[in-house]
## 1
Amino acid sequence: MHRRGRDPRRDQQVGGIVNLKPFLVAALQSALELGIAIPDDVIRHVTADVLATHLPRPLWARLLTACLGAARVDAALIVETIGVPSLCEHVPAHILWACIEEVGLRSLSRPSNAPPMSGSRPIPLVTPPPPPIEPKPAAPSTSSGPSIPTPAGGEPELDASLRGARIPPGQRFRTSTTGIGRLAANNNPRRPQAQATPPAPPPVTDPPTADASADRGGAPRAKRGQTEHDFDLETYVGGKDDWKNTLAVEDEQLVDWAAADETVTNGDEIGRKR
Amino acid sequence: MSNDQRQAWFARVMESGLENDIFAPSDVLAHATPDVLASHLPPELLSKVLAASLAAGSMTPERVLETVTPELLAKHLPHEVLWQCIAAAATRAGINKSVGS
């Protein structure tokens, strides 16, 4: 039973001011609790002028104290500080009803699966910083997959640590002192490309480049004095890592190698030796 | 807002309106007419209403709302009907200035 026993005296009070406040409190408080309404809806009707006119001074003192102590003053702070019962106690009923009416009519017009209303929670002014990232030492990576470029705009520290763990491009290709090898040794971000014209006679071997390849744990690089097919056989048989890394080369890169003149020239000799 | 939230709110407002005598069960049934109830209440609920009335010997708005509680009203009836009931009560109370009362 949701209605108390019939009493003629109570019948005279139906809609009277005595029971109106609890009804407004229940309607407004449940609307806020259920997300039907947000504090901004309340403050849109119970404006600062309304509060100044109808709110008693002790409540104003409490409100001012809360506002002074809060980092952000918004509608939620005002409604929470005053409280819905106190609002309904002091603010005229027609103003509160206007708020409830707006909320009720809006709930009728809003589809049930509509996204939640924005602004129900104050957004913090400062986003908490992410946890600090410990710089990791650049360990030799055994991954044979293709390197994925880091997204643009990432943190510089993170990029630096990841860059150290990536496979140097020079280990994924033949580490010779050809034009492509020089590109890899120089960490040139451009993809190696086959030369359109036959390469010029090999220059004098650059010792620092060969030392750098030995430091990275790769196979010993062939110097210009050696033939290309000897170098290929040594790399294929001896270096397991290079063999795995060679499998990870992208197709586009393989096509580029096949198009190179030196590869075509030496292909017959490799097949004959096998 | 989800339909559950809206339903819970209408149930709470209807319950509060009845508890605080903002509107009476007869006011509810003035909007939730027999046609509305028959169209939207499930058969088992209609059966309960009828059984309770038969047991008591009469069917009154109070008795109907004893069975069809505010939660069930908000669950089965169109919320527009419930809102008309609430808004009419607000108009009677003189707080609905938008109506021009």
Note: The mean pLDDT of chain A is 64.
## 2
Amino acid sequence: MSSKGKLENFKKRMQPTIKETKFVLKRIRDSPLSIAGIMIVLYNLIIALFAPVLAPPKLYDAYLIPRDPSLGYTYIPNPPSLGHLFGTTSLQVDLYYGCIWGTRFAFKLGVEVIAVTLLIGLVLGMLAGYYGGLIGELIMRFTDVILAFPGLILAMAFVAALSRVPGWTTINAVMLSIILIGWPGYTRLVRGEVLRVKTEDYVEAAKASGASDARVMLRHILPNSIYSVIIVASLDFGGIVLTAAALSFLGLGSPPGYADWGRLIYDAIPFAATGTQYWWTYTFPGIFIVLFVLGWNLLGDALRDVLDPLYRRK
Amino acid sequence: MEKQGSEENLIQIKDLYLNFYTYDGVVKALDGVTLNLKKGEILGVVGETGCGKSVTSLSTLSIVVPPGRIEKGEIEFNIKGKTYDLLSFKDATMRRVRGQYISMIFQEPRSALNPVYTVGDQIAEVFFHHRREEIINAAIAQLKKDLEKSSRLKSWIRKYELSLYGKMLKNPKALSLTLALKIPIVKRFQNRMKKEARELVIEMLKLLNIPDPARVVDMYPHELSGGMAQRAVIAMALSCNPLMLIADEPTTNLDVTVQAQILLLIKELQKKFGSSILYVTHDLGVVAEICDTVAVMYAGNVVETADVIGLFKKPLHPYTQALLESIPRPGERFVSISGTVPSLISPPTGCRFNDRCRYTLEMCPNVKPQLVEAEKDHFVACHLYNEGK
Amino acid sequence: MEALMSIEDLKKYYPVLSGVFKKKVAEVKAVDKVSFDIYKGECFGVVGESGCGKTTLGKTIIRLLNPDGGHVFYKTPRELVEGIKYLKREDPKSRALKHLLKKYDLAYLTGARLKRFRRFMQIVYQDPTTSLDPRMLLKDIVAEPLVAQGLARGSQVIERVTGALEKVGLSEKHLYRYPHEFSGGQRQRIAVARAIVSNPEFIVLDEPTSSVDVSVRAQLLNLFQDLQKDLGLTYMFISHDLSVVECISNRVAVMYLGKVVERAETEGLYKNPLHPYTQALFASIPVPDPTRRRIRAPLSGEVPSPVNPPSGCRFHPRCPIAMELCRREEPPLLDVGREHYVACFAVTK
């Protein structure tokens, strides 16, 4: 086939996708909250991407907040000033740097955790839903066990246990813990969708065409069951960051001086008790957290509003 | 179109236009639909998917859901010598009409029934809504009888119940009544009323040839078979003796033998109650079996209206002719209608059947044909029959 | 006439589980010892009402469902079928029997061998909206049998897909579209294209025209007949629409509650139905001729639940001519002349 022919084919192939995209964009344009959500997430994304430009790293690990030698290691935080836009928190940790790189850290955390959780959820959920029987029962009972525990408490236990593993940083422990408490939810969700799609005629038709189990699962069931999972994942993004912040807030998360919003708030605890005297220590990280989670929640809602009619149009 | 004497007609749909506002555009679903339903007759509305027959029946009851909107037209309803335009009715008035004057039964009986309530409860609900006084009076009568042969204590209780029922009739918003309805043991006085309603329901079910009605009354919809569920729906629809029944493909999902039973039942009930029926279907066999008059619809227009024998013997509109020809006959090749139904978003100007018609004339693509009386009581919307005029 | 398929005593039961330990308390006998032959090149019609098992029968024959008993002999000469039945009676454990079954019985196939047979047997479903994957392009939907079984590669796939589409009246410009962009009739054609792309010999048509409009129905039926002639296909046409079956089938079997009650050549069956159920069925069809109105409901009651079928002849509770014998014994399917088989004591005695 000539290259021109290939281009034609590509354009033809993309036609329906282009139509779908136009439809999606229109739906988004019609909903102000969706636009707000997308704007906020984009804003956070830009900050995260341009973190090295906005707040140049100075130490070996970019996520470690550099200190201003002129201020030393005093305990009392300094209010916002020209050199330190958001002020400093205890031990003169620069809040501006912390918040900017905290955004990047939040994305890194979210993406890694969601990726792994989704993968586990999809694989286990698909197996449990498609094959059922003993495998399905085993997987489901396993998820039941984990879901029986209150999430945050279990995560705390995991972090506490995993940080003792030699060579592991607390960050890795935090990520793994959130993955461990998150995968059962996705597994159940995927399994439910798979059970629904499994009984559709086109799945049976694929089997009649000689499709192997793997082909049926990957080519037919997966694309048709993935919508709800995507929506939940986007809503969860904010939740994951919030959980990590909560763990840091309890002292189980990032080490001192790390650019993590939760850590910064943890550092601000003693100062918050005194009222609004050291307002900058908790307000700035707080605003960043709120905006981040809000943006992702709105985006998740927007996705659901958009994908639902798309679903139904078919 | 020549108008018939309006005393004969129960419903006259005049020039109804209806649009659906969708993302893909404006779907001009009904393009000037005109229909007449005479008193006491069964009018069959035939057409294929998308011709607008279901939407027409929904408009009669004003239950068209957005994005659908009625643009123009009138639906005249003649009762007791007076004529009303149903489309001009407010919601509250329409609610009194539905169920009492005009009822509707749908294609899938089990989705017309609420799965969490028993069949008896649902039919009784219709009774409570429209025949409330009848039930309360029956309860009162029963109470009075019991009052005579009861002891001192019981008669005191019964007198209290009597007063409550009396309030229900005359002063439903009375405080003592509202309180009584809320207090746990006291509110059991309603049981009498419910018992009366239950008797009415059982009688209704017997009328519909449902075997063992006393047991069926307490069954849930999912426990009933398709045919039984459809009978229950018909019971609900006929419980208040409406003047008109709209049936939207009620037997399409049923087995052939069950369909025969239901058709026979509908015919018998129609004779007994004298209701007029608007029967929507795509099955020409059903039309031939039970309808008196037939209206054929295509792409949002009524293209032909005639009495059933005349329509089958001498179909005038090319579409009707093609429909009758496409009925499969053994030994012959299947005859289909070439082409497809036009898009209603950008419908063709002129006759909507033009590009599939075998007799097109010069004016067909440009001028929309109106319904004219080509023969006695036989109306066609086709330019072939305008020629003489 | 050579038989393409010989179905012998085919059974498909569904267990009804109850209780905490999911014990089998009853069985739904969806298909209960059904036997008939399907000849090469014919259109074999199967009619019946809901719950009679016709769809289950079709799916079991092409092994979308696994039979619980009986045989589906494929391209097996009659003598061999008789020989196998003899062996089964006399020496059920013989290795010769096992060998023969492995070779000829579709019900015996498993795994990779079964997969290789799939290209010869295809199915067209009733509802084209649910039988096509809404997230797949047409070209992938129709190509699936080829790709899944490795029958073609690369440009060959596109060629064969385009060929199949053209045979059903579509064209290559439809390749890159999604199913929802097409009308119901066109979608059904896509399903037919998918069924013929692997050059099958036998196609089960499961109520293929029930979900489409009357005017489109005729187009589809003509398509089926043309394809049968062009490609030498054999059909099993399942439907509850008796008038359509009359026009397209060579022979027809009538099913009731999992059993075949009557089977004959089409003309013979429709002119002279012998079984009381068949007679009632034909009498219930509304005739599109208002001068021949005869609203009768010849059959009262409903089809009983297949979980607890009536004893003896399954039709006896609703049968107008039921005798005492009918309640006790099941009538066998017997030839009453000219290949017209009936399972009814009143007729065969």
Note: Residues 16 and 26 of chain C are 5 Å apart (CA to CA).
